[in-house]
């Protein structure tokens, strides 16, 4: 079983409308809803690939209760749910019929309390202690200060249990990572630019940072760029991975499906190049359907040979890593890991 942690879930509602302009009164033609949040998409894609996945997240208020029911009753998951005082947010996506245009409206992020953050940490620890967990995925943004260091705490816990960790995040949760590193990091080019404090880093600068992460113990790192080539480090080797041209229906969730493909391939023991082709094919297959994570395994298999992998040689080393923002994360490792020893005990 794979635990799929999401700190900032949502109810993702899609309203399909005829062509419209701001200021008009528009009547919807169809409405659908699904539980959103990157880790929930990962769990959904893993299930499509034949894996058992368990979402772990916060849900609050009537919307949160509805999300928990959807995961359990409509999708067959057994979610690990921490109730929150703050209500779960809703994201409304307005889809214009007959075009690929969509506009999303986001509720404000909820404020998760320190006690609720601690409860999720302990819930994941308890789930791991029961046995049967093969890997952990940590996905998405952090909604509030109390959750910024949770991914680092979970990485340290998993490392002590020798469980592979797959991280897809940005902003404060990424800045706290130090001391304990995940096996896999995935993010997009814009998110890495933010991490590097640059507007538009070139490929050489990105590969250099991937090399730095490898020296910290990150065995595989992927930087995606929409329909353009992904830049990859795997076991100290570097690649560009170019997906085929497609007519995308909805690219939302493609990165989550890529992560699911990496997890599935990793657990199957695939060699690096087949692993990368399969993961990229999962991302492309997701873009061919509207609902995030609902990939077709047969379509994935069809797309795998169409992924172009180009080895990259002579990657220059990066400048010394900027540790600004890392002190908080390092201290949390001490508090929750080394000093207490809580995560090292079976």
TrEMBL record:
Q: Which UniProt keywords apply?
A: ATP-binding, Kinase, Nucleotide-binding, Transferase
- What SUPFAM superfamilies does UniProt report for this protein, alphabetically? Ribokinase-like
Q: What are the GO MF terms of this UniProt record?
A: ATP binding; kinase activity; phosphotransferase activity, alcohol group as acceptor
Q: Which InterPro entries match?
A: Carboh/pur_kinase_PfkB_CS, PfkB_dom, Ribokinase-like, Tagatose/fructose_Pkinase
* Keyword Metal-binding (UniProt): no
Q: Where is the Carbohydrate kinase PfkB domain positioned along the sequence? A: 22-286
Q: Which GO terms describe its biological process?
A: carbohydrate metabolic process
Source domain of life: Bacteria
Q: Which Gene3D superfamilies match?
A: 3.40.1190.20
**Which family, according to the similarity comment?**
Belongs to the carbohydrate kinase PfkB family.
What this protein is called in its record is Carbohydrate kinase
